[in-house]
């Protein structure tokens, strides 16, 4: 199988760039669906065609009509990254904050016959091969807004990082596309943003 990327990107305070994303096999199509069309205009805070405010979260609507997602105004929103369709990063908790929690969204073109079960298995098997000390915390299939979905929480070490990270992922297969929404936090550390991250997950709609 040719490998397509689903990034487990995470930001470490003091580094100039995002760490190298995890390489996880998704399907056998040799495409990179995370690359945006050339006519897509990156979002800015004043671009009202893609962003509106609603309650506690701002709403971002994908200009290609694939999804919408909410995010707090004090989190950093990026839809111009090479590694993900969107990245949403938590604000700093102070000068001693060595890790910023973050979310990213990946969208992959799939074969029309691929099921959510197949898509999840390929991804999770890839994660198990890559992460040191992989441990599943919870997982479940469920129906979400008319689509069959899968949610998993797991933890382990990635790359050269010496501490465990905890990852929550939502998988959805719809319209021959695979959607993976990922939240990354530092395992064992008080997560002041977990409730907000759950709100962002709940706001995600196709």
From TrEMBL:
* Key words, A-Z: Signal
Q: Where is the composition biased (Low complexity)?
A: 30-53
- Which superkingdom does the taxonomy of this entry point to? Bacteria
Which region ranges are annotated with the description Disordered?
26-63
**Gene3D superfamilies in alphabetical order:** Mog1/PsbP, alpha/beta/alpha sandwich
User: Which residues does UniProt assign to the signal peptide?
Assistant: 1-19
Record's protein name: PsbP protein
From which organism does this entry originate?
Lacibacter cauensis
């Amino acid at each position: 199988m040719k490998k397509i990327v689903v990034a487990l990107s995470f930001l470490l305070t003091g580094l100039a760039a995002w760490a190298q994303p995890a390489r996880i096999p998704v399907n056998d199509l040799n495409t990179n669906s995370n690359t945006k069309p050339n006519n897509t205009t990156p979002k800015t805070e004043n671009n009202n065609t893609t962003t509106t405010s609603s309650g506690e979260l701002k709403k971002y609507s994908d200009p290609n009509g694939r999804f919408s997602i909410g995010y707090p105004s004090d989190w950093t929103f990026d839809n111009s990254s090479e590694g993900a369709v969107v990245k949403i990063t938590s604000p700093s908790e102070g000068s001693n904050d060595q890790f910023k929690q973050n979310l990213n969204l990946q969208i992959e073109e799939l074969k029309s016959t691929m099921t959510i079960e197949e898509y999840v298995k390929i991804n999770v098997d890839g994660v198990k091969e890559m992460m040191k000390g992989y441990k599943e915390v919870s997982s479940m299939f469920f129906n979400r807004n008319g689509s069959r979905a899968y949610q998993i929480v797991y933890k382990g070490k990635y790359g050269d990082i010496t501490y465990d990270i905890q990852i929550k992922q939502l998988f959805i297969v719809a319209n021959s596309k695979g959607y993976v929404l990922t939240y990354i936090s530092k395992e064992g550390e008080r997560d002041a943003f977990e409730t907000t991250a759950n709100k962002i997950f709940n706001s995600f709609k196709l």
